[in-house]
Specification:
Helix content is about 55%, strand content about 10%. The protein is of the alpha/beta class. A 5-stranded parallel β-sheet has the order 2-3-1-4-5, with helices on both faces. The longest helix is centred in the C-terminal third of the chain and has 20 residues. It is globular, with a radius of gyration of 16 Å. The two termini are about 10 Å apart.
């Protein structure tokens, strides 16, 4: 299968964003992460803070998930909560961005948005070394050491809840992915080289 799109979900502190950006830069393809939120913000006149808040408050209730997915599949955006509305808007932006050509998508349930496309590689980036993860959170992300674990747990929970609320799948279930890579064992360079070899 020729890889056209890589969708990446990643643990907070795994270096997934850097890995995605470097892979895109070194292969000359697009990379969309924060850009998805910026596009939704511009199109619907919402602040980035509002969108991020809606993402974070997405419910992990199974009943909410079934309802939200049903309304989204029917195209009934007006019947959705603000959280569901944001999800539908993000999915539409991802699909529009994909029309521009080969790309890497960071988070935002991109694999769901592109599930009907051919050539999609679903990747999960983790970091098995907790010390390395916390070092990256403090040194690269500028989070005080005393808050590193709390921030790690907060963002991983946010990502897991948002993923489940909108897909009915567990974010950290490796069956949802074609490839799982460990930035602790492979290093950033190793992860980039693996992804480059698959998309070039």
């Amino acid at each position: 299968m020729k890889i056209k799109y890589i969708t990446i979900e990643r643990e907070y502190g795994s270096g997934g964003t850097e890995i995605a950006r470097r892979t895109a830069m070194e292969t000359g393809i697009y990379c969309y992460g924060e850009e998805i939120l910026q596009a939704v913000s511009k199109r619907y006149d919402l602040s980035l803070e509002q969108i991020q808040k809606y993402e974070e408050t997405a419910s992990n209730s199974f009943l909410y998930t079934i309802y939200a997915m049903g309304q989204a599949n029917l195209g009934n955006a007006d019947m959705l909560s603000k959280e569901g509305y944001i999800f539908v808007a993000e999915q539409a932006e991802i699909q529009e961005m994909a029309k521009k050509g080969r790309a890497i998508f960071l988070g935002h349930c991109a694999s769901e948005a592109l599930k009907n496309e051919k050539g999609v590689l679903r990747v999960f980036i983790r970091c098995s070394d907790n010390e390395a993860k916390r070092k990256r959170i403090t040194e690269d992300y500028g989070i005080p050491e005393r808050d590193a674990v709390r921030m790690q747990n907060r963002f991983d929970k946010k990502r897991a809840n948002y993923f489940y609320a909108n897909t009915a799948k567990h974010w950290d279930d490796m069956k949802n992915y074609d490839l799982t890579i460990d930035s602790a064992n492979l290093g950033t360079d190793g992860c980039v080289n693996i992804l480059k070899s698959l998309i070039v």
